[in-house]
């Protein structure tokens, strides 16, 4: 079997099963462990999968903020609307960067009284015209492709805050790996956000669930809620609920 055929087979199996083991591939492809290892490494370098001990997991595809914001996305709006309903008057809320969290800012009712602390430039800009919300922007180095501030000043400012809620933007979520993402600097920020809030709300579309990325933010048990769309069945989401997360699926 040619290399291209083997790698196409690996990708198809990964999409079908959500996880592949190197030992299984050796038997199925009738090749050596070294050949399977090389194929997996090449696919990982191409950003197609995430290597883990003994095999591989799907890897969420990332793109610049502007590209992710383009086009209408009804599932993202539904997730944001559901998540926004979890905020109550008088709360202090950390809002992470990301397009879904930005959509939550758009969905906040005009009568809501709250304090929003964010490192997201789009979130701050959207809430600048909200009549009742106080906005605190975390200053630091601007990461242009994420439209968010990062660095030690952001981390130090977060450590001075005790928030009621944190809306966490998710790149990858997996029952075994936990919360992960492709950028180490953003991982540092998200870890501190989790530490400084009483309840953590992960907001993500179904495509990012069951995937993994190189840098670990934390375990699933760090999450209080997972708000996602209605395209995943209860069996797929069961491993998240088993770890104590309240899973909320949107109705539309």
Automatic annotation (TrEMBL):
GO MF: DNA binding; DNA-binding transcription factor activity
One Pfam assignment: HTH_DeoR
Domain annotation HTH deoR-type: ranges: 3-58
Gene3D superfamilies in the cross-refs: 3.40.50.1360, Winged helix-like DNA-binding domain superfamily/Winged helix DNA-binding domain (1.10.10.10)
Entry-linked InterPro entries: Carb_Metab_HTH_regulators (IPR050313), DeoR-like_C (IPR014036), DeoR_HTH (IPR001034), NagB/RpiA_transferase-like (IPR037171), Tscrpt_reg_HTH_DeoR_CS (IPR018356), WH-like_DNA-bd_sf (IPR036388), WH_DNA-bd_sf (IPR036390)
Keyword Repressor among UniProt keywords: yes
Keywords: DNA-binding, Repressor, Transcription, Transcription regulation
Domain of life: Bacteria
Record function comment: Repressor of the lactose catabolism operon. Galactose-6-phosphate is the inducer.
Listed PANTHER family: GLYCEROL-3-PHOSPHATE REGULON REPRESSOR, HTH-TYPE TRANSCRIPTIONAL REGULATOR SRLR-RELATED
Protein's name according to its UniProt entry: Lactose phosphotransferase system repressor
Native source species: Dictyobacter alpinus
Organismal lineage: Bacteria, Bacillati, Chloroflexota, Ktedonobacteria, Ktedonobacterales
């Amino acid at each position: 079997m040619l290399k291209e055929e083997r790698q196409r087979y690996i990708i198809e199996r990964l999409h079908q099963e959500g996880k592949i083991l190197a030992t299984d591939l050796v038997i199925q492809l009738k090749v050596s462990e070294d050949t399977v290892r090389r194929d997996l490494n090449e696919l990982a370098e191409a950003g197609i999968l995430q290597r883990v001990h003994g095999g591989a997991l799907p890897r969420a595809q990332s793109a610049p903020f502007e590209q992710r914001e383009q086009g209408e996305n009804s599932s993202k709006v539904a997730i944001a609307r559901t998540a926004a309903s979890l905020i109550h008057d008088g709360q202090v809320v950390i809002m992470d960067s990301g397009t879904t969290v930005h959509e939550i800012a758009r969905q906040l009712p005009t009568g809501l009284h709250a304090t929003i602390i964010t490192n997201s430039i789009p979130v701050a800009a959207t809430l600048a015209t909200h009549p009742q919300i106080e906005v605190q922007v975390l200053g630091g180095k601007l990461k242009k492709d994420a439209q968010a501030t990062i660095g030690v000043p952001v981390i130090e400012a977060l450590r001075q805050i005790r928030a009621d809620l944190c809306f966490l933007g998710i790149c990858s979520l997996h029952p075994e790996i936990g919360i992960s993402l492709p950028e180490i600097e953003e991982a540092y920020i998200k870890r501190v956000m989790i530490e400084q809030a009483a309840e953590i709300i992960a907001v993500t579309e179904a495509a990012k669930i069951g995937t993994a990325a190189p840098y670990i933010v934390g375990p699933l048990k760090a999450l209080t809620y997972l708000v996602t769309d209605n395209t995943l069945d209860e069996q797929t989401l069961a491993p998240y609920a088993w770890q104590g997360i309240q899973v909320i699926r949107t109705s539309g």
